Queue: 2 jobs
Job 1
Amino acid sequence: MTSAPRQDRVTAAVLVIGDEILSGRTQDGNSHYIAKYLARMGIDLCEIRVVPDIAEEIVAAVNAVRARYTYVFTTGGIGPTHDDITADAIARAFGVGIEENAEAIAMLLERIRPDQLNEARRRMARIPLGAELIENKISKAPGFMIGNVIVMAGVPMIMESMLDAIAPKLRSGARVLVETIDAGSIPEGRYAKALAALAESWPQVGMGSYPHFSSQGVRNQIVLRCREAGPLALAKEAVLAMLSGLANDRAPG
Amino acid sequence: MTSAPRQDRVTAAVLVIGDEILSGRTQDGNSHYIAKYLARMGIDLCEIRVVPDIAEEIVAAVNAVRARYTYVFTTGGIGPTHDDITADAIARAFGVGIEENAEAIAMLLERIRPDQLNEARRRMARIPLGAELIENKISKAPGFMIGNVIVMAGVPMIMESMLDAIAPKLRSGARVLVETIDAGSIPEGRYAKALAALAESWPQVGMGSYPHFSSQGVRNQIVLRCREAGPLALAKEAVLAMLSGLANDRAPG
């Protein structure tokens, strides 16, 4: 995590709504996509939650995270079927009503013939009162933003289009700069103490060590993260010097 | 979600501990692996959370989920570097001490020469008091189980090995049976009302509708989930009959 003062940070949580993720049927790729997207915007993603298609669970999770972070991004549950309960749950979380939205109906009519706009499809135009619509270029049924909560589809292509539509309207922050240092096969246990000392010397630089195990053995990377280029560059030099100063050590880490 | 009575269910949460997931550096695949694994064991995964490498966040999340579910599976943060703080956070969450564990040291010595068992590597043998070790066949540093919380490595190969080691000791449940029905290009909006009626008629069968959008258009799947084969088969027949009874509808869903 970055060390910038909390009041300067723009923070976020992702809330993935979907039984299909929890049952193992589908692998969620949306939260990784959003994580990378927010990193580019300088928004610190602080938490991801996956919750089932149960209204009480969605309401509790939305209210827990919206109080803590600048933004909450939800994915899933805004289609026309009975298991799509996100819009109603969001309205409940905010304690507001939910009604068919004329602008959303107009969006649906760009893709659906009036005689085919049945009750189920009209459900996709039910929007919590006070929300702002988010355009859906792919299949027209909109997402929405209410308060600091951004409600998007679960289908990746549509979610990505909605994120592009809402992103320009959001606060962004200074982007975290990242340096990845390949520690090769030097075991973590060999450099852990020295790295901890460097992490203490550079409190504004986040330092993490990430092993990758394969049949070829262990490879480690040290990742440095900071919003300021100066300390980051100096910390990188210090880590490189630390690594090159280490005697070769064949013990596993 | 299944409709089995709550007291009969074996439930779980996954807690992924790692800045590298939140920053977008790494895509978490562990939670999907665990989701599929638990489904095969008849354990209902009810929640996934990803939290940063911050002790207070880990403690709060562990305590929130361990009170709610039969089991909690954590991944990440049990290596030798300063950013590996999971064991200490778990001890804090349980209000117990943490000490170097002789059995864990013995495990490390299967892979690390005694003269190379430095302070950082010894950290991997610090285990909350009262925990039971979980064998790590890959790199020896063990995971552990304390109360209902199972603490595993973040490196996928090691996590998978630990899951195999602990699984036989866990309660399992009746496996949820799944039927996936291809609705083809029939739009969700065309069958949503009829599907909702069937979902109401078969309360013991979970029914979800999952669209897949591609450049070739929309394809939908209806997924039925139930622990009993009888109702599942009858519900499947009913859904198939419903779909085949639908007139062809070219409007997008």
Job 2
Amino acid sequence: MTTPIPGLHAIIPAGGAGTRLWPLSRAARPKFLLDLTGTGRTLLQQTVDRLVPLVGVPGITVVAGVRHGAAVVAQLPELPPGAVVHEPSPRDSMPAIALAAAIIARGDPDAVVGSFAADHVVTGDALFADAIGQAVVAARNGDLCTIGITPTHPSVAYGYVEAGDALGLAGAPDAHRVVRFVEKPDAVTATKYVGSGCFWWNAGMFIARADVLLGHLAEHQPRMADGIRAIAEVWETGHRADVLEQVWPTLTKIAIDHALAEPVAAAGAMSVVPGEFGWTDIGDFAALDELLARYAGEGALRVLDGGDNVQAIDAGGLVIAHGDKVVTVIGIPDAVVIDTADALLVTTTGHAQRVRAAAERWRDQGRDDLL
Amino acid sequence: MTTPIPGLHAIIPAGGAGTRLWPLSRAARPKFLLDLTGTGRTLLQQTVDRLVPLVGVPGITVVAGVRHGAAVVAQLPELPPGAVVHEPSPRDSMPAIALAAAIIARGDPDAVVGSFAADHVVTGDALFADAIGQAVVAARNGDLCTIGITPTHPSVAYGYVEAGDALGLAGAPDAHRVVRFVEKPDAVTATKYVGSGCFWWNAGMFIARADVLLGHLAEHQPRMADGIRAIAEVWETGHRADVLEQVWPTLTKIAIDHALAEPVAAAGAMSVVPGEFGWTDIGDFAALDELLARYAGEGALRVLDGGDNVQAIDAGGLVIAHGDKVVTVIGIPDAVVIDTADALLVTTTGHAQRVRAAAERWRDQGRDDLL
């Protein structure tokens, strides 16, 4: 059993609704609300399950998007009231994380906060706990710290963190100074990165003392910092709703990566701890197929639902269907077949990155009901 | 306007239920009951529409399979009672055609009967009428006559008829003696056949005087001939049901091709009239895709239902879906996507011939409900 890390709080932004797993994920039912691994637990539930041993149940704060609040609360009955912060509208991750950090800091001025996406898959809990433990040491030392995922291949689907010198911190032997963050590279660059041994995948996990995080915010996004402070001050009062309604829409819509991680790294105040644990953001159906391959074995058709109802003849890939419907796939070795009540997607893992464009085309045709 | 050909009767066996267009066609809803061309008329209705100008409404006899009788009658309200003969159980095409011929012969001893499949597509009515007219001349001359389709390509999906000398019949200038029937050839053989100019596709159309046809039956299938005669004798009496029930199950289950066409050709009593009209038996989804290409143009996705609900990104082929469901196909240039309420098929036109095996696998798994 892992012992909770004193003073550590976990923030889980659960508001995004991408279209890369459309039509499986929808705006009203994004992937963190789905069980994508066939374990019986949704990605959000798995995220909480993974973090509770490190922060305890009282250490969890989920920031739920406006369309998902009720579903988030329903999926996490173990959390006390107040553990779910409801954002009035989507403003990307920075306002959500900052608000949660400000609320946590009012209750625990010495808190260290870690932000973790609600829709990633992690395997290897002990390795995860070790990395977080080292990151907390770096955070206590004043850094904004991120976890860098050891690349298993030269992925072009992820951004990278370039590591510099080791910090030489007691209790954080693997922590390094961050040189820079880089966006998704091309294949040649990715191969160079992975070969160098100095680049890790950016998994969007950030750990810092709450006061440090909010200090960086005041420096790089001063207007947002003012707004967050105003909201947090009245959070436990009857003015919460009024102030939220007034201030929240004025906050800049920006991700923490761009708002803080990049400028703080440029200023030399960012560190990275490499994580050897398994990780994926399930960024498209090819990634989901790869994830499920760990259960099903190579070459097989991965089936997330109704396995007896799927028949493959010289076919492989991923089939997701529901209910009693049978699916037959013939002669497509890398098929992706996603069947839902109102939308059917047929493609291959090689074209998985184009699913977003397909969803957007439906939107362009006025079919918002499908998103 | 075509004038009906005196004494010609059309027999339309409508009993088969193949699995090559599964899951679109089902045992209870075979392809002749479906509108596969988007014209608003089913293949059975189109078959009747094509033959009525040649034989008149009273000249149509449909032999309906036991599971399809009600649907056949419902689709053909223009036919008088008695025009639909209901077989008690499927015995392939020979007993069905022989019974219809025997019933017709009792009413018109000089009748010429022509047998035409209920689920083929013909284009070019004038050319069709001309070929049938010549075939009737050959039939009046005592031949069992077939229509040979002029091959458009060296198909391996069809059987072939090899033609010998021209008959030199007045009124049937294109009629030739049949040398032999050959089963579906391999690609090399098919190319040789088509290059020779002496081979036509066997479209399963047979025209003969009813007494000639029944005479050949008596010679090659004497027990069946006895049984058919026994049934026909009581057809208009109160004993029909009893005799049918007693005799029908004893009749050999055999196609007219094997029961009559092959032995009669071997005996030199078979002729063939080439047909220049367009013809397909829609033997698989590749053939359906090709058929619909005439309407939709090359390279496009052919959509049989809900065109606005289908989106293709670098994709082509065939999509059949129903209702309001949207279908998105990405990156598969020759896709076949057949979506029904209880079964979804995903394959490519190149694998269309394997659909039958897929349907049979479901049967092997005890899923007769899907067939």
